[in-house]
Amino acid sequence: MTETAPDRDGIAALAAELAGAAGRAILPLFRQSDLAAENKAQSGFDPVTEADRAAEAAMRALIAARRPGDGIRGEEFGVTEGTSGLTWVLDPIDGTRAFLCGAPTWGVLIGLVDATGPRFGVIDQPHTGERWTGGLGIAALATPHGQRPLATRAPRPLAEAILCSTFPEIGTPAEHRAFRRVADRVRLVRYGLDCYAYGLLAAGQIDLVIEAGLNDYDVAAPIAVIEAAGGIVTAWDGGSAAAGGRVLAAANAEIHSAAMALLLGDGRDD
Amino acid sequence: MTETAPDRDGIAALAAELAGAAGRAILPLFRQSDLAAENKAQSGFDPVTEADRAAEAAMRALIAARRPGDGIRGEEFGVTEGTSGLTWVLDPIDGTRAFLCGAPTWGVLIGLVDATGPRFGVIDQPHTGERWTGGLGIAALATPHGQRPLATRAPRPLAEAILCSTFPEIGTPAEHRAFRRVADRVRLVRYGLDCYAYGLLAAGQIDLVIEAGLNDYDVAAPIAVIEAAGGIVTAWDGGSAAAGGRVLAAANAEIHSAAMALLLGDGRDD
Fold first, then answer.
1. What confidence tens digit (pLDDT) does each residue in B125-139 have?
2. Helix B47-66 and helix B8-26: axis angle, to 10°?
3. Counting beta carbons within 10 angstroms of the beta carbon of residue A12, is it exposed (0 to 12), middle (13 to 18) or buried (19 or more)?
4. Packed helices B173-183 and B253-264: angle between N→C axes, nearest 10 degrees
5. Which residue of chain B has the CA closest to A33?
6. Sequence-separated (6 or more) residues with CB below 8 Å from residue B114
7. pTM for the whole thing?
8. What is the pLDDT of residues A33-89, one digit of tens each?
9. Smallest Cα–Cα separation from B131: which of B142, B120, B139, B147?
10. Contact list, B200 vs chain A (CB under 8 Å)
11. Which residues of A touch B206 (CB under 8 A)?
């Protein structure tokens, strides 16, 4: 069976159920006390890996029960083939290093892709209680302070733009030089936000996210959420970003073009 | 009147009241929509400055009403002399750039100092609902998920430590080289956390925070919170950090010594 008109309400309800289950699996292992972590390290217990695996297992079980025809690609447990033409792409903890530090910028990434690419996605931060949902006509941010529609920022010059990236030492030396060509032109660069940066882009807070070395499960949900909010996500060369790699996420076509021109440079790579 | 035995319960209650008032003043201006911010920019309205000033005004009014003998030093409205020997040191929004990006790593800093230095402090993050309180026998983190005591991490080698700093381009060239001597030895460096990093240090999540160019109102509350949790905060040369400047915050004496030795270098400054 090929599903040509996805069941939006069923998909959105299941995605919310998945995010809730993942959060319940992860939160008890977030910000473990120093003592507990050290005791458990002696027994070979790694709280991040444990949380990652428990969350993905919980999500896979729910998908199998609710929509058994869908495929699954997870960071931890690989591929389960489906028959519906739709595949859930799961990264239970995107931002493992933020998680280790206790910073609330990691997230649960839940994407739904078909042959054309990401169609629907959720970025969930269980500690802050924030959930970005985008695709199939939905574009919303729910927080403990309320719910609001997602919409990316209007165009503005690079000199007034905010750029986020996870690490200042992004990528290879050539990738780092390309990144710096954009970073040196913008008003403000912030590091260390992981997938939270994609949420801020979709919510109209920032203009650009530039990353390198990503996996497909890092980008499926962010692409769906950002596109639903009016933004653009491509590879640095303008091609599809769905496979990961070098990713340029932008609030609008104008700033996407301006950033891409700088990333591609003039062929001299300086 | 010189207050030799501070009224802990009164001070803690007032600090909580101040944090609540600041949060109520700031949150309506956090994550304004793009359109609202742009319309208001046309009329010269700056949401960050407005939030900063509204929060400090609310806190000053409460201090004047509840503890009129105390002095006040605020980032926005300067010094009000007191008679009690105690001075409230206020930074309504520490992490202005995080605030601009919509990242939840800015905070309200409320410190209480006497002639010996910081005695009590609160680091409050109103968006996430997290509040660190330390001093006068209190050391606690309250979040929407519950309350727990604060305690810094046990000693571990630099090679296993986590270091946070706000900007990778920290300080002057010499300060940057000193920072890199530590950064190149640790397991993990994270940027962009602002005062939230001090909270993570007090909560036992990270080992070191290294900053340069700070003001006194940036450090009064963090010093009190971190010391209450068992940590150490000094200038890079081991002197008092209460005036700001170059600050080294550490989870314990061992890692403080190890980091300070690298910051001071061997006199060749490389």
1. 999 999 999 999 999
2. 150
3. buried
4. 140
5. B204
6. B6, B85, B86, B87
7. 0.93
8. 544 455 545 556 678 889 999 999 999 999 999 999 999 999 889 999 999 999 999
9. B142
10. 101-103
11. 101-102
